[in-house]
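Re: weekly structure request thread

Next one in the queue (131 aa):
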Amino acid sequence: MIGKEHKSVANRQLGDTTYLKRLDRDPASELQRQLNEKLTELLASKEISEHNSRKSQSRPILSPPKIHKPGNPERPIVSANDHPTKRISEFVDLLVSRLPSYVQDTNDYLTKLPPSDISEETLLVSLDVVC
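Done, posted below.
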């Protein structure tokens, strides 16, 4: 059950028209139906396995606090577990991870980077991209 405070934060975030647009209707059911039809078609033609054809369901939005930032702002996220695009995302991840330029995370980057390329004056940083 979602608490009153959590609902208030979620409603405030979802009402922010800077980054979000209110839709006249929820397209999730139709998108999920189309995806499931395509998965059934791909399974029937043996282009994907039974495991990869598993149907999926949409998930609720969560808003965990960012405890490393001042004021602990919350970030809205949607779990990808059983999400309609989860299997497609897994497939893309599999393909992309085989590219020589693929970097999984900071540790992967540091492992791939030859030690001689990092001087003591080097400052490693990360950033968020906003579209």
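The first helix runs from residue 4 to 14. DSSP finds four helices and two strands in the chain.
Next request, please.
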